[in-house]
């Protein structure tokens, strides 16, 4: 059972979260430099339990686990549930000014199971959705944000927003979500279906010129930290990420779903998810996207490390997280936080307890006391293929040199004499 590492306060009647509450830090206005350490490894020897808490863009979270934008953050009831279960932060389902333009269809999900096509028993490894952003009226979503911030002033609530290519619309949306007291904004530049038809979501994330302009509008207006959520459906994800940061965003979140066609029924010959006999390409998530997400986060982390002052920016890893180990991998690449969406749809809100327990086990095994002790520790071990070849040739040369023993009798030394003899014995 996990023991959450944040301060216990007198139980009050607002929350049944076992009396845990975060220390409220000063509102993370954009001028506040976040307390951060660069990517480095520090193993500590103290006997205390690992501390799972993280500081991100000026706000503190009890653990790095964040509800990713989607069904698990779609209304007051489920977001409240996420806070009660102990999630580090909640990112609400993406909102826009006019929900009347958002019309969903059902069925809107289709799953991929390991094993033969159609096998109902295999483990679920892939998930496609053709769900749009929130179809609930903005006024209602805003009231719910306000209510949640009233009930949980110490918890981190992030609004996810998306608008059309229109400066005034973005400004109005930012103004309205900020008035609810949310802690930060995540900008959805990445939904791969439906919204691009209106020049929204992935249409912006794939077009660097448009993204730069829209980020300029957003960052001139927003007073809370802004994360830009990237689409993996692009050749080089570092290009839009770099522009988002250089135009003022405080963080990058990656990845949103990967454009996909989940499959075709071999009985009906119709594609899935099948709506009145037809389908449309959707967004792929769940375990199968995890390696792709790791590659994208690795590239972004390398870019951030070499081009930006890390202490001012944050990175949120997303994609296929169902275990503490999956999350650790993102953190080892440099992520400050890890988002989970499909995992919650499959396993429920209690998943956060398992994630925290497994993260803690990992930290205990390596004697890491804080997340900063290992954040980014694996990043230096990525290099180019040319460099791998060079390293391997060097290693082979050294192994051969060891086997060959001394090249000349002049190389015998007194101290290494026995080892030098051994190096020339054949059995
Ligand atoms: C059903 C569904 C709806 C989603 N809706 C949104 C959304 O409204 N806004 C957004 O930014 N991402 C949305 N996402 C993407 C997720 O937040 C996440 O980036 C992606 O699914 C990969 O993470 P996962 O494997 O943990 O689900 C949605 C994902 C799913 C599965």
Draw up the topology in text.
Blueprint: E1 54-56, E2 59-61, E3 65-67, H1 76-85, E4 89-91, E5 109-113, E6 124-129, H2 138-151, E7 156-161, H3 167-178, E8 184-188, H4 202-205, H5 208-221, E9 226-229, H6 238-246, E10 251-254, E11 258-260, E12 263-264, E13 271-272, E14 282-285, H7 290-307, E15 314-318, H8 324-332, E16 337-340, H9 342-347, H10 351-366, H11 385-404, H12 417-422
Parallel strand pairs: 3-4, 3-16, 4-7, 7-8, 8-9, 9-10, 10-15, 15-16
Antiparallel strand pairs: 1-2, 5-6, 6-14, 11-14, 12-13
Helix pairs in contact: 3-5, 5-6, 8-10
Protein name: dihydropyrimidine dehydrogenase (NADP(+))
Pathway: Amino-acid biosynthesis; beta-alanine biosynthesis
Organism: Hibiscus sabdariffa
Quick rundown:
This protein is an alpha/beta fold. It has helices spanning 76-85, 138-151, 167-178, 202-205, 208-221, 238-246, 290-307, 324-332, 342-347, 351-366, 385-404, 417-422, and strands spanning 54-56, 59-61, 65-67, 89-91, 109-113, 124-129, 156-161, 184-188, 226-229, 251-254, 258-260, 263-264, 271-272, 282-285, 314-318, 337-340. Helix 8 crosses helix 10.
Radius of gyration: 25 Å
Question: How many helical stretches?
Answer: 12
- Order of strands, widest sheet: 3-4-7-8-9-10-15-16
Enumerate the distinct ligands: flavin mononucleotide
Could you tell me the CATH topology label of the largest domain. TIM Barrel
Strand content: 5-15%
Strand tally: 16
Low-pLDDT residue spans: 1-27, 32-38
The first-to-last residue Cα distance is 53 Å
CATH C-level class of the largest domain is Alpha Beta
- The figure for the number of domains is 2
* Structural class computed from helices and strand pairing: alpha/beta
Q: What would you call the quaternary organization?
A: single chain
